[in-house]
Amino acid sequence: MSNPPAAGAPVAVVGLGQMGSGMASSLVRAGHTVLGVDPGPPSTPEGVDRTELAGALQQADVVVLSLPGGDQVEQVVEQVRAVHTPKLVIDTSTCDPTDTRRRAQLLADTGHVLADAPVSGGPSGALAGELTVFLGCAEEHLERVRRALEPLAGRVTHVGDVGAGHTAKLVNNLLCGIHLSASRTLLEVGERSGIDPARLLEAVNAASGRSGVTEVNLPRWVLSGTFDSGFPVGLMARDVDLAATVAQELGASSPVVRAAREMWAQLRDEVGPQEDFNRMVKR
Fold first, then answer.
1. Residue 3 placed within a domain
2. Are strands 62-65 and 88-91 parallel, antiparallel or unpaired?
3. Are 234 and 95 found together in one domain?
4. pLDDT tens digits for range 27-49
5. Average pLDDT over residues 83-101
6. 81-87, long-range: CB < 8 A, 24+ apart
7. Are 130 and 251 within one domain?
8. pLDDT exceeds 90 at position 283
9. Which of 162, 197, 214 is the last residue of a domain?
10. 177: which of 154, 163, 240, 254 fits an S-S bond (Cβ 3.0–4.6 Å)?
11. Which residues carry out catalysis (predicted)?
12. What is the predicted pLDDT for the residue at 112?
């Protein structure tokens, strides 16, 4: 499986939500025949052929997964295992690294390859083909996976073997969740002190307290009042919970991690899982 997919070669995208639709469109722009698979009602992006998973697996040697979680990934992996033609499965979903390593072994036993490539950048990044990818795969498959990801990503960081990508994504989202939780205090202190929040952010972003949250999330989605990042509270609460579980299993947890887990679960219960995740800062 060392050859990269040729331009025009069929690629299956399983999951046509906001992220999957954007990735499918980027693959179409790159000249691929794109087979979209989704049992739900979302609209089909222009240039994408909607089909069933079985049909997509007959035509495409590269399968990109953009699914809500591990249960859905597991179902697809089971179907891939039954196919005799070798497939490269690129999982951009966010999953438990232990489960990812197990799935990779199951697929390897039947002649297939699994790479975990969770992404950051939101729906806009997916549509523009400018996602940041946390890649986990064996060195022997690295070049092929990188080439397959070219239409989707502005940056690909090979973190390590299978499972490392999902580990990195979980740690990233955990830190983002912690930073958002802390930024709630930043804005509340500013408001109660009578300080213009934009000026307070300007000061912080010129100093050591800055983060991706203060530099991007707060000005773009919070202070603007739009709260339309495309990433919901429910998914962030899930990711923080999973990251906290992984940290606990590795003996690497902390009071800060545990507090973030509680805060995100509480926010999900208060505002609902569909609200934008930046509501953590200002409800």
1. no
2. parallel
3. no
4. 999 999 999 999 987 789 999 99
5. 97
6. 81/106, 81/107, 81/110, 81/112, 83/57, 83/58, 83/112, 84/111, 85/61, 86/1, 86/61, 86/111, 86/112, 86/113, 87/57, 87/60, 87/61, 87/62, 87/63, 87/112, 87/113
7. no
8. no
9. 162
10. 240
11. 169
12. 98
Query: Taking residues 136-148, what's their average pLDDT?
Result: 97
CA distance 87 to 10: 12
- The answer to the question of residue 4 being in a domain is no
The tens digit of pLDDT for each residue in 167-192 reads 999 999 999 999 999 999 999 999 99
Q: Tell me the backbone φ, ψ of residue 45, rounded to 5 degrees.
A: -60, 150
Kindly list the catalytic residues: 169
The answer to whether the beta carbons of residues 94 and 239 sit under 8 Å apart is yes
Q: Sorting pLDDT into bands at 50, 70 and 90, what band is 2?
A: very low
Q: How far is CA 58 from CA 24, 26, 53, 61, 63, in A?
A: 18, 22, 9, 8, 11
